[in-house]
């Protein structure tokens, strides 16, 4: 829903830094943080292959990495975005919150909360000219709905993430205001699907997007969706 | 998305058994399974309080359990629905599937895959006369989107579960064909919300439902949604 997590911000800043021709240090916020803070751990980028990735997922990943070589596509890094990383960006939220400290200390990004291979394995690529994101997604065994198939909520989650990122890169920090999903066919558990999102139009401050979820060979249309994203003015 | 998991079937059968005045053994499929199979473990019902439940959630739970006393409301049990429970109901799916056995052996219901308190803590109640489900939901720290708030996908997941169950009890095994969600305000992590779903109309084989997500005091409308559910004819 909200695209304004630390990880998304970090991704956006990294992309902007690259485009503006910043120095290697300045364009890498993780590196900068390491130099100028007492924090010693570099957050792990989860949008990279691990042993749980199937052959299909690795093959698609390699194909898109090839597309990245001429700069038309970019791979978006992805982090767990724990609360304990103390993002100053959301200070206003925390001040209003009545959450128990103990619970918050365990907080982590929904889509990155599983061990490798069990939950959401994915990587998102972005094409700036086409205003398009492509998410390569392998849904693990902990995302089951009907036995053998992905839960509809897990599909909705990845659609939300892909659509949201497609608006967040050109539009900054946004919130999903509407998500309208047509589920056409159930997705087999542990299979790979390709989620394709397109920015269709911008009206004032509203971003309108569309999205499809297809099999790797593109022959099966599993789901299609539309999304509306709004800038988060309270931040 | 698909409401046809083992857990849902077990719930439906348990409810039908009660209504038809079956014997204690016949109306408890878990007990029957234990008597007539080599399987010795009784699946745990997760739709019951555990130490992670907040005061708000426990209070609401107690209020609804009180409503259950006159039979107008019923608490729906909820299980992990592991593949290893060998549900015969979905044999057709498994025969067509090319999934790796090792992965399937780890499969579990998306909404019950977390340790107590970390993910989806919820219980669904059903009112047959009003054709209505109410889900009491506490979203744990592993469901984070923007720091301090629930991920939109986690909200979509619980809306899907609540709407789907509202159609599944009168309609049998159903699949969510459409889910249209308006996200109005972000939901604080670890807070409790009440998801209210209503069966609005039935047209032929289609079930049309509406849904709201509100704060415990009902003052804040976090999200509203509509859903369309279809019977799963292939089973």
From TrEMBL, chains A, B:
Membrane topology is:
Peripheral membrane protein
Which keywords accompany this UniProt record? Apoptosis, Cell membrane, Cell projection, Cytoplasm, Fatty acid metabolism, Hydrolase, Lipid metabolism, Membrane, Mitochondrion, Mitochondrion inner membrane, Transit peptide
Which Gene Ontology BP annotations are present? apoptotic process; fatty acid metabolic process
* Start and end residues of each Thioesterase domain: 148-219
> What's its EC?
3.1.2.2
InterPro entries in alphabetical order = HotDog_dom_sf, THEM4/THEM5_acyl-CoA_thioest, Thioestr_dom
Tell me, in one coarse class, where this protein mainly resides: membrane
One GO cellular component, as annotated: mitochondrial inner membrane
CDD domains xrefs: PaaI_thioesterase (cd03443)
Enzyme class, first EC level, given as a word: hydrolase
PANTHER family annotated for this entry?
ACYL-COENZYME A THIOESTERASE THEM4
- Similarity comment: family membership: Belongs to the THEM4/THEM5 thioesterase family.
Name used for this protein in its record: Acyl-coenzyme A thioesterase THEM4
Q: What is the lineage of its organism?
A: Eukaryota, Metazoa, Chordata, Craniata, Vertebrata
């Amino acid at each position: 829903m909200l695209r304004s997590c630390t990880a998304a911000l970090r991704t956006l800043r990294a992309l902007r830094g690259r485009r503006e021709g910043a120095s290697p240090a300045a364009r890498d916020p993780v590196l900068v943080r390491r130099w100028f803070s007492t924090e010693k751990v570099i957050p792990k980028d989860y949008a990279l292959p691990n042993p749980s990735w199937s052959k299909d997922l690795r093959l698609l990943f390699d194909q898109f990495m090839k597309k990245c070589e001429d700069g038309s596509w970019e791979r978006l890094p992805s982090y767990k975005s724990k609360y304990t990383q103390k993002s100053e960006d959301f200070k206003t939220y925390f001040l209003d919150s009545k959450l128990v400290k103990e619970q918050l200390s365990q907080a982590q990004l929904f889509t990155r909360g599983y061990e490798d291979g069990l939950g959401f394995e994915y990587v998102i690529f972005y094409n700036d000219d086409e205003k398009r994101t492509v998410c390569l997604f392998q849904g693990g065994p902990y995302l089951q709905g009907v036995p053998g198939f992905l839960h509809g909520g897990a599909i909705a989650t990845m659609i939300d993430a892909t659509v949201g990122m497609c608006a967040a890169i050109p539009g900054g920090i946004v919130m999903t205001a509407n998500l309208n999903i047509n589920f056409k066919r159930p997705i087999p558990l542990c299979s790979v699907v390709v989620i394709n999102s397109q920015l269709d139009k911008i009206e004032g401050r509203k971003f309108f997007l569309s999205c499809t979820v297809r099999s790797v060979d593109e022959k099966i249309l599993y789901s299609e969706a539309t999304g509306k994203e709004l800038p988060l003015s309270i931040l």
